[in-house]
Amino acid sequence: MGSRTTVAIDPAGTDIHGEAERIRALGPVSEIELPGGVRAWSVTGYEAARRVLADPRFSKDPRKHWTAFAEGTLDPDFPLIGWALMENLTTTHGEDHARLRRLVTGSFTARRITSLRPRIAEVTARLLDGLEATGKNGPVDLRAGFAEPLPLHVICELLGVPERMRTDLFRGGEANVDTTNTSYETVTSMERVHEIAGDLIAAKREDPEDDLVSALIRARDEDGSRLSGTELMGTVLLLVSTGTEPVKNLLTNATAELLTHAEHRAAVMEGRLTWESVIEETLRVQAPVAHLPFRFAVEDVEVAGVTVPRGEPVLVHYAAVGRDPSVHGQSADVFDPGRADKRHLSFGHGVYRCVGMPLARLEAEIALTMLFQRFPEMRLAVPPADLKRQSTFIMNGLAALPIRTR
Ligand code: HEM
Questions:
Q1: Is residue 292 packed enough to be buried (19+ CB in 10 Å), middle (13-18) or exposed (0-12)?
Q2: How confident is the model at residue 254 (pLDDT cuts 50, 70, 90)?
Q3: What is the mean pLDDT of residues 372-378?
């Protein structure tokens, strides 16, 4: 194994798409080296990813199916240890996963999501008022002032998280996503957010309200089982971070694309292109979740002519999958909302596909429509080459999006 060609993953995520192309050049399923020297497999091909995501021989449970983790040979200083230690539906497999997922989706109903439309518009309008006021004095950061607080408030209102806890809970998830953090920093931050989530759950048990945390506490599966304390805590933390982090990236990435493609911006503003096409093309060409840990082969599995050995970790490279030239041709990496085929797997596929997909699409449609209507003169405040990336290879986002509103 040691002599094979691999790509060593840059923990700072400096050039996610360039790195993806280097991995793709080794094949649709190929070996990579994760920070900390851990060997893993990366899936960059669209068809290979669909197969992996739909194949029950790939598990997400490190406790049962990651040989190094289960046998205790994994270095405790492995920087991505947080992704193996967390306990929620994304680290379970088979019937365990199905049970947890039913308990969550049962509370996350379409009716509950659709009913959020007016509230999302209200939160959006309030944040735009803030941007308009500060934008009078010069550049503003669209990430900090809009793209991050919008989904954070929406998911926290849905869950019933009081304002004072929101930022701290979100920062905890963000620490796990920052792949330049040490294992110590990640674990310390996890302990802190567990404390906050524990307080929240205790308060909701005492005094239930009409919100998702109270619904999750009440939720009962067909067999009568409920979420255990650890599962409940893990689920609440998962929903805060998955409800915020990728939506924030979708909003900043779509805005940055439109601010650097005047022709597509004009087309969408004049109604020649739909917002839906802008959102889907952004999801394809700038997948908000880039390179996601972890899956594990339950047995030796052959995919695209490569055998992934039992017990080894696999990451699906969603950012590469959306740009697969065998699906989208030579212009695969070009942002073109007018293209007919915008196929992507950016919300996942199979039994672990995204629970929040309808909510994310609804938020993006409301937020982008209102943002571009409010600031028709909006432009980047720095040259595109100066936009700094978020320090992570797992997510595909910007550290800041400085804009001028007028
Ligand atoms: C643009 C926004 C979003 C993107 C791109 C996105 C992407 C994804 C992806 C790729 C997965 C599958 C992970 C895998 O490969 O196993 C996933 C799972 C998940 N997402 Fe999202 N997501 C978004 C928004 C949301 C929102 C708003 C929520 C709501 C709370 C959410 C909740 C979840 C949950 C709970 C899972 C785990 C499902 C499971 O393991 O069964 N996501 N998401």
A1: buried
A2: very high
A3: 98
**Is the CB of residue 58 below 6 angstroms from any atom belonging to ligand 1?**
no
Torsion of CA 224, 216, 61, 45, to 10 degrees: 120
Closest residue to atom 32 of ligand 1, CA basis: 356
Of ligand 1's listed atoms, the one at least distance from the Cα of 104 is: 35
Which residue out of 90, 170, 242 has the highest number of ligand 1 atoms within 8 Å of its CB and is therefore the one to mutate?
A: 242
Confidence class for position 3, pLDDT limits 50, 70, 90: very low
CA distances in angstroms from 117 to 112, 114, 210, 365, listed in the order given: 10, 6, 17, 10
Q: Are 28 and 47 in contact (CB under 8 A)?
A: yes
Place of tokens 């893993």: 40
- Please tell me the predicted confidence (pLDDT) of residue 2: 41
Element (H, E) at 195: helix 183-206
- Is the pTM above the cut of 0.90? yes
Instruction: Give the torsion sign (CA, 334, 336, 342, 348).
Output: positive
Q: What per-residue confidence (pLDDT) applies to 374?
A: 98
**Third-level CATH fold of 7-404:** Cytochrome p450 (1.10.630)
- Domain map (residue ranges) of the chain: 7-404
Q: Is the pLDDT of residue 191 over 90?
A: no
Task: Report the relative pairing of strands 58-59 and 29-33 from DSSP bridges.
Answer: unpaired
CA 133 to chain centre: 30
Distance, in Å, from the CA atom of 360 to the CA atom of 287, rounded to the nearest integer, reads 13
Contact between residue 192 and residue 174 where contact means Cβ atoms under 8 Å apart: no
Rounded to the nearest angstrom, the distance between the alpha carbon of 346 and the centre of ligand 1 is: 9
Ligand 1 atom nearest the C-alpha of 100 is: 41
* Strand order through the sheet with 379-380: 140-141, 402-404, 379-380
Of all atoms in ligand 1, which is nearest to the CA of residue 353?
Answer: 12
Task: List the end-to-end C-alpha distance of the chain, in Å, as a whole number.
Answer: 56
Whether the CB of 101 sits within 6 Å of ligand 1: yes
Q: Which residue blocks in 338-394 are alpha helix, DSSP H? A: 357-374
89 lines ligand 1 (CB under 6 A): yes
